[in-house]
C-alpha cells in the first residue's frame, strides 16, 4: 500500500512538473512555493497544495530519470508524427551550471571552465542536442571539468547506438572541433558543418582580402565559398559581419589597453623593488597570469624579464621588465575582426544555405538562455548525482 501511495504521489508530482513547464517554466522551488498554490491544479489533479514542495518535486525527477531513454524515443516519434521531423540535421552545444555547495554527493561536480564566471564553484557540463526547429532530441551530463571537444565522439556514438541513422548532418561550433572528431564523423559517413578556430583564417587571407565573389545576405553579412587548400572534398565558407567587426575590435582594444596598463604597473613595481617582486620567478608567474587574463591581447606583446646591474650600486642586481608592442600584427587583426570560417563536407554550392544552417546553433543557445533565466535553475538543492 505504501509503495502504491508513493508512486501515486510521484505521478502527481511529475504531472505538476509537466504542466508547469508548459504553462510557466520555472524552477522546482518556484513551482512549490509560489506557482502551484495560485492555480486550479489542486482541484484538477486532486493534489493538495500542502503536498507540493521542492523535495517532493525533486524525488519525482528521481523517479523519471530511469525512464529518460524511453522518453527520448517517445518524443522523437511524436516529433516525426506531428511535425514531419526527420532528424537529418542535429545541432549540438554545451553549457555549464554551477552549485553553491560542496556537492560531496555528486562525483561529477568539479571545477572547470565556468561560462557563468564562477570559477570558485564546482559545476556540471550539460550537452544539448536539438533539431534546427529547436526541438530537443537528447541531453547528456558530463563532469564539470570536461573539455567540450572531448564530448563529441561520446555523444554521437550514443545516439548512433540508440537510434541508428548514422548518416546525419551535425552542426557544432568551433569549441567542439578537432581533427580526430572530424575523422570519426567521416568514418561513420556522417556530414558536418562546423566552426573553425580563428587561427585558420590566416590560411584564407588572400580570399578574405579579395573583394570579389562575396554574396551579401541578411543584416549586412557577407559570405564566400572557398575550396579546401589541401585539395580534399571539404568546402570552407568565409563570413564577415559589420556588427561583429565593431564588437571584436572593441574587445581587442579593451584587452590591449588593459595589458599595457598592467605591464606598466609591473614595471613600476620592479623599479621600486617591492618585496613581492624581487624574485624573477615570481615576476614571470605574474606575467603568465596577465597573458592568461588578457588572452586576446597576449600575442601583441613581447615581455622580457631579466636581472641587470643597478646603476646606483654596481655590486647589486635588480629585476628589469621590458615590454614591446608588436604593431605589425595590427593590420591583420583589423582585417580578421568580424570574420569567421565555417567548414563542411556537405555538397555545397549555396553559401547562404550553409550560413543559415550554422546560425541554427542559436536555437541551442536560446534553449540554454531559457534554462538559465526563465527556468531560474539556481539555487539547486538536488545534490545527488
What does this structure look like?
The strands form two sheets. The protein has a nine-stranded mixed sheet, with helices on both faces. It has a two-stranded antiparallel ribbon with strand order 9-10. The protein starts with a helix and ends in an 11-residue tail after the last helix. The chain is built from 13 helices and eleven strands. The protein has 385 residues and is α+β, with helices and mostly antiparallel strands. It has helices at residues 2-23, 28-35, 41-45, 54-64, 68-83, 152-163, 179-187, 205-209, 242-272, 280-293, 330-336, 351-359, 361-374; strands at 89-98, 123-130, 136-143, 169-172, 191-195, 215-216, 222-227, 235-240, 301-310, 313-325, 339-344. The protein is globular and about 90 Å long. A hairpin with a 2-residue loop joins β9 and β10.
Observed structural traits:
385 residues; alpha+beta; nine-stranded mixed beta sheet; two-stranded antiparallel sheet; 13 helices; 11 strands; 20% strand; globular; disordered N terminus
Global Rg: 27 Å
The ordered H/E elements are: HHHHHEEEHEHEHEEEHHEEHEHH
The profile of the biggest β sheet is: 9 strands, mixed
| Dominant shape | globular
Please tell me the overall pLDDT.
82
Structure classification: alpha+beta
Low-confidence stretches: 1-5
Number of strands: 11
Strand order of the largest sheet: 3-2-1-4-5-11-8-7-6
